């Protein structure tokens, strides 16, 4: 089968009037693991060469489910001689400049060593990825802000990494993958939340990762389409857990961002939580407010991959229910299901709401430095 | 909130097995001896912790025995009280959690026999679901064949949390048998506990487990659609029971989107998933975990795109409502009538064959 890449003019608005936007999910990628070697000790360089990053799955090179496209990337997003997302100049030319992205929050998920099986490797490699982000990305383009990649399964080490980089102007949040070994509200992770709250940094969960458990309570699905859509379920499980296990009751200033899990599930999940918590609240006396109230105050969602109802008006109703102050535009550049900033809201939106989603929410959430 | 209409069809009530002793008369000699020797007292599971508020409404929770443990209690508390026309009995007893498939099949046969003798024989308003020993596809098909001629059994029953996804091809003989006999496949909340109830490990609190049930329904529905079950068995109906309902539109929008990008992976899915859902999937609407305001509920129904999908259920004796308010008041009188009569009759074709 051959695939034709359609050349489309970038953007449909003249450059001069294009408003500045903030993109909360942009993926840089090392061209090879060796790109990270300057930031690793000789021991870990040798370890990676010999054993690699084992991560609770069979395949060494590929993902668990073959993707729809190579590297799950846009076919036109491969820089000459490199992997998608590996070249800053290419990213600037193809995406950041023409769309006037003045804040791009980097979310490194490949590699995100947070759930590698070797705990010491996870810690060392997270640190290396963070240093690589400064050296190769944020120091070279002030529009870029990075996420602190942490070994979230290893609380004390994750706290140390947050404390090492807290206050660094290039880092605006702490990043975990959504497929944790225990539900995110579990006490195993509270030290991470405590450190993030103390540092004034939101904690983000980006879809993907390996928990060691099937993505469905009914077992391992067969197809990539099932795994891909089930990230919405794993993100919902995390919201349930964060609320019910009392994270927001314990850390009242904590802000959580759910990235790339879709968002239309949030209103029905909120209703469901309220309905059942009222019946079962004797189990969780630490909760002093309704689940919906914790969610409204503590949870942000990114916009991509945006659900596609038969009538897009339904999506406007959904965002109205979530609140236009809680949704953050995300393109997912350079991945295959990238959302184009110009075309991703195919329904009428008030200027003030559009400004919130495409810029103001991110700048408020991530602070003055952003 | 309104009472059910007289003659309503209640699509989810739960007769309780009082204990293994009650099943003993309905087991084969072999399995009765095995149970006797092992001393296995009861098969209740943590899907419904016996003392939890949700498991039984306080006024349906007698001191000396389990709730809903005999047909007299069910008559007084629901059937006579509301003038129920028909109630479909879904027995929740942890046969699905056993690892020995022979034992599971032996106990399922006893459980279904118990349901027929102790319930269906005793009240003409009752219908039943054939509980399947899901540990074995062959034995599940045997169980369907064994009961298929008893038209009082109107569906087969599985749990949403199993060992492998429900759509997987090795399960298809179950769907073939169900379709052949005009039996919808009922999928009830609850787990065999082969995996955690979440994609991210075991929870700390029961509340999380119960709320997470809807996520298991989402992935199982995706499995049934993506594997092609509905393409292969065009007459098959699936009923999601105690699944919650408000999640359905958002979930299918998500799946519809990825279907557009990844349909080459599942070419037998030859139309948008929401269309498949409307033709094949029904949901019991208790608990109604959905929008509590009439405006938001109206939007939800518009998003569902059909008033045929929801079925009335009381979920007796689980505590989902108080008093006689079994029909949530956001539901319009017209929809309430459809949910209590037209939609169940259209879903459970066997109800016509057993009209008394």
Outline the structure in words:
The complex is a heterodimer of chains A (370) and B (356). Chain A is of the alpha/beta class and 370 residues long. Chain A has a single domain (20-366), classed as Metal-dependent hydrolases (TIM Barrel, Alpha-Beta Barrel). In chain A, 36% of the residues lie in helices and 11% in strands. Chain A has 11 helices and 8 strands. In chain A, strands 1-2-3-4-5-6-7-8 form an 8-stranded parallel beta sheet, with helices on both faces. The mean pLDDT of chain A is 95. Chain B is globular, with a radius of gyration of 19 Å. Chain B is α/β, with parallel strands linked by helices. The model of chain B has no long low-confidence stretch (mean pLDDT 97). Chain B has an 8-stranded parallel beta sheet with strand order 1-2-3-4-5-6-7-8, with helices on both faces. Chain B has 13 helices and 8 strands. Chain B has a single domain (9-353), classed as TIM Barrel, CATH 3.20.20.140. In chain B, helix 5 runs parallel beside helix 6. Chains A and B meet through helix 6, helix 8 and helix 10 of A and helix 7, helix 9 and helix 11 of B.
């Amino acid at each position: 089968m051959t695939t034709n890449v359609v050349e489309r003019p970038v953007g449909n608005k003249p450059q001069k009037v294009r408003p500045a936007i903030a993109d909360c999910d942009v993926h840089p990628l090392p061209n090879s693991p060796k790109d990270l070697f300057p930031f690793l000790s000789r021991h870990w360089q040798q370890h990676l060469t010999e054993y690699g990053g084992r991560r609770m799955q069979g395949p060494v090179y590929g993902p668990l489910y073959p993707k729809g496209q190579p590297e799950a990337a846009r076919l036109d997003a491969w820089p000459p001689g490199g992997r998608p997302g590996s070249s800053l100049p290419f990213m600037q030319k193809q995406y950041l400049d023409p769309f006037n992205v003045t804040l791009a929050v980097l979310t490194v998920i490949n590699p995100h060593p947070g759930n590698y099986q070797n705990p010491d490797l996870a810690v060392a490699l997270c640190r290396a990825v963070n240093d690589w982000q400064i050296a190769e990305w944020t120091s070279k383009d002030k529009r870029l802000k990075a996420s602190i990649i942490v070994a979230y399964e290893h609380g004390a080490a994750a706290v140390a990494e947050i404390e090492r980089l807290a206050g660094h102007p290039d880092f605006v949040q702490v990043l975990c993958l959504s497929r944790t070994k225990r539900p995110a509200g579990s006490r195993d992770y509270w030290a991470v939340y405590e450190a993030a709250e103390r540092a004034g940094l939101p904690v983000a969960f980006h879809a993907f990762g390996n928990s060691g458990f099937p993505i469905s309570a009914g077992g391992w699905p067969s197809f990539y389409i099932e795994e891909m859509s089930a990230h919405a379920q794993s993100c919902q499980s995390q919201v349930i857990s964060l609320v019910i296990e009392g994270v927001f009751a314990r850390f009242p200033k904590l802000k959580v961002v759910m990235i790339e899990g879709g968002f239309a599930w949030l209103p029905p999940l909120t209703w469901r939580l309220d309905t059942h918590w009222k019946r079962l609240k004797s189990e969780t006396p630490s909760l002093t407010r309704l689940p919906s109230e914790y969610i409204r105050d503590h949870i942000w969602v990114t916009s991509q991959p945006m659900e596609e109802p038969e009538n897009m008006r339904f999506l406007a109703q959904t965002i109205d229910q979530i609140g236009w102050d809680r949704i953050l535009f995300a393109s997912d550049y350079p991945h295959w299901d990238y959302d184009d900033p110009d075309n991703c809201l195919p329904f009428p939106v008030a200027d003030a709401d559009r400004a919130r989603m495409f810029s103001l929410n991110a700048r408020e959430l991530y602070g003055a430095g952003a | 909130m309104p009472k059910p209409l007289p003659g309503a069809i209640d699509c989810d009530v739960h007769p309780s097995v009082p204990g293994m002793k009650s099943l003993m008369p309905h087991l084969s000699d072999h399995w009765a001896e095995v149970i006797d020797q092992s001393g296995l007292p009861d098969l209740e599971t943590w899907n419904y912790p016996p003392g939890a508020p949700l498991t039984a409404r306080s006024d349906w929770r007698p001191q000396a025995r389990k709730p809903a443990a005999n047909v007299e209690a069910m008559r007084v508390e629901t059937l006579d009280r509301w003038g129920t026309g028909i109630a479909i009995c879904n027995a929740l007893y942890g046969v699905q959690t056993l690892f020995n498939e022979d034992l599971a099949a032996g106990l399922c046969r006893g459980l279904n026999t118990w349901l027929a003798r102790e319930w269906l024989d005793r009240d003409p308003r009752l219908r039943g679901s054939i509980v399947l020993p899901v540990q074995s596809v062959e034995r599940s098909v045997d169980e369907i064949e064994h009961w298929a001629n008893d038209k009082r059994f109107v569906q087969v029953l599985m749990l949403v949390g199993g060992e492998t996804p429900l759509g997987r091809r090795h399960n298809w003989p179950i769907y073939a048998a169900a379709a052949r006999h005009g039996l919808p496949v009922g999928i009830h909340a609850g787990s065999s506990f082969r995996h955690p109830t979440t994609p991210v490990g075991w929870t700390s609190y029961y509340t999380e487990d119960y709320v997470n049930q809807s996520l298991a329904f989402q992935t199982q529905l995706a499995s049934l659609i993506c594997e092609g079950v509905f393409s292969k068995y065009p007459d098959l109906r699936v009923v999601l029971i105690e699944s919650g309902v408000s999640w359905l539109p958002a979930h299918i929008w998500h799946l519809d989107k990825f279907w557009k990008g990844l349909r080459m992976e599942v070419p037998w899915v030859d139309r948008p998933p929401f269309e498949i859902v409307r033709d094949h999937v029904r949901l019991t609407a208790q608990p109604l975990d959905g929008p509590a305001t009439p405006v938001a509920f109206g939007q939800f129904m518009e998003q569902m795109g059909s008033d045929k999908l929801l079925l009335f259920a009381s979920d007796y004796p689980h505590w989902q409502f108080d008093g006689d308010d079994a029909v949530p008041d956001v539901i319009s009188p017209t929809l309430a009538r459809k949910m209590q009569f037209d939609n169940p009759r259209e879903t459970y074709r066997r109800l016509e064959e057993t009209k008394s």
